[in-house]
Structure formats: structure tokens, C-alpha cells
Amino acid sequence: MGWFCVRAVFAFDLGERGTLTYEERLTLWRAGDLAASLELAGADAVEYARCLDRCVFTGLLQGYELPEEPGHGAEVFSLMRDSALRPEKYLSAFFATGWERQHVIDEG
Predict the structure, then answer these.
(1) What is the full DSSP assignment across the chain?
(2) Number of structural domains found in the chain
(3) CATH code for the domain of 24
């Protein structure tokens, strides 16, 4: 049995600005293999979306087997993507589009 982290993506129709809000949710699973962890996470994702108003599970599941037992500072997810974009444009395209619902921590 190993530890797996699975990312599931959800869409919320909150009726704001004519857009959908997407959530990436990462969960940890103890399972015999990646397929079993995805099965567990898929059932959880369906239930998670069912319990929330205007939420739909998009069907996207991405799994990652943790290289070691989870603990303080453990790596719980890794996804590598090839791109011709330079770092600033890559981050703007995929992670800092301006539409994120996040708080910025002032490190000053």
C-alpha cells in the first residue's frame, strides 16, 4: 500500500461576471496502486460536487504516488508540463491569470 495524491477539478457556476469558477482540490489516499487511488478519489469527487450548490465535477483526475510516507514538508503532488513559454508568461497563462480567488501574504 502506498500514498497517493489526486487532483480533481470542479466547476462552479456562481453567476458572477458570466464566468465559471474552477477549483483544483488535492486529496490524499492510501491505496494499492494509482488506479485504486483514482477510483477512490473519483467517488469522493462525485460526492463532494453533489454536496455543493452549483458545483460540477469536471471528470479530471490526476494522480501522483508520493515517494515517501507523508509528513512535515512532504511532497504531495507533482505534475510536469512541457511549454515553449518563458516563466513569466507560463505563470500568467496557467497560475496567475488575475481571476484566482486567493489572498496574498505580505512578506515585508
Answers:
(1) -EEEEEEEEEEE---STT--EEEEEEEEEEESSHHHHHHHHHHHHHHHHHTSTTEEEEEEEEEEE-SS---TT----------SS-HHHHHHHHT-SS----------
(2) 1
(3) 3.30.1280
- 14-61, pLDDT tens digit by residue? 777 777 888 889 999 999 999 999 999 999 999 999 999 999 999 999
Contact 12, 54 (CB under 8 A): yes
**Residue found by looking up cell 500514498 in the block:** 3
- Asked whether residue 25 is domain-assigned, the answer is yes
Q: Is the distance from CB of 5 to CB of 76 less than 8 angstroms?
A: yes
- Residue 96 forms part of a structural domain: no
Cell, residue 51: 454536496
> Which range of residues forms the domain containing residue 31?
2-81
